[in-house]
Design brief:
heterodimer; A: mainly beta; 4-stranded antiparallel β-sheet; 11 strands; 0% helix; B: mainly beta
């Protein structure tokens, strides 16, 4: 299967700990997106990369969140000093092309629970 | 700033009847509009998109959507609903370098 994969699928952590999630996009896709989804809501944009460059980051995103995409392949999303409000499903998506006209392919998500 | 509204939290329809899931949008410039579906325990899947051209676009699983510029709407439709269409549907608009999703509409198709 050559779809978008995310690891881990589930993460339970204690408040104050750091967590890191990984996303492997579809290999030929140059755009990669991170979203956060809470129950009853649509995906909320966090950030996106075009190749290895992080081109946009949500102004709502705390400085505790950071993302990287070294070499334009896989990406990691790190949350430092987690808070209970960070509990959510974190989605990764990838797409092809240089504009927003292309559909995104989503991974299964990483469900984060902060206790 | 761009935004998407899905006015119905849930839509109930009987199998075999036509269905409509509503979406309105606000964006500066020409809109790029999308519909995605989320089945239980599965990731979001692309259904269809409007970029330019014909106002009626066709997508996966027999779904179609009608772009109406004057009403800033992009309603999702299907002539005959199936029980297997029961899922969560998201409308999305691309603008300002990012995609904004609506809150979602849960479609329930009763046999």
């Amino acid at each position: 299967d050559t779809g978008v994969s995310q690891d881990p699928r589930h993460k339970i952590t204690k408040r104050g700990q750091n967590v890191t999630f990984r996303c492997d996009p579809i290999s030929e896709h140059n755009r990669l997106y991170w979203y956060r989804q809470t129950l009853g809501q649509g995906p909320e944009f966090l950030t996106y990369f075009q190749n290895e460059a992080q081109l946009e980051k949500s102004r709502l995103l705390s400085d505790r969140f950071s993302a990287e995409r070294p070499k334009g392949s896989f990406s990691t999303l790190e949350i430092q000093r987690t808070e209970q409000g960070d509990s959510a499903m974190y989605l990764c998506a990838s797409s092809f092309g240089l504009a927003g006209a292309y559909e995104q392919y989503f991974g299964p998500g990483t469900r984060l629970t902060v206790t | 700033a761009q935004s998407v509204a899905q006015p119905e939290d849930q839509v109930n329809v009987a199998e075999g009847n036509p269905l409509t899931v509503k979406c309105t949008y606000s964006v500066s410039g020409n809109p790029y509009l999308f519909w995605y579906v989320q089945y239980p325990n599965r990731g979001l899947q692309f259904l269809l998109k409007y970029i330019t051209g014909d106002n009626l676009v066709k997508g996966s699983y027999g779904f179609e959507a009608e772009f109406n510029k004057s009403q800033t709407s992009f309603h999702l439709k299907k002539p005959s609903a199936l029980v297997s269409d029961s899922a969560l549907y998201f409308c999305a608009v691309f603008g300002g370098f990012k995609t904004i999703f609506g809150a979602g509409t849960r479609l329930f198709v009763k046999a």
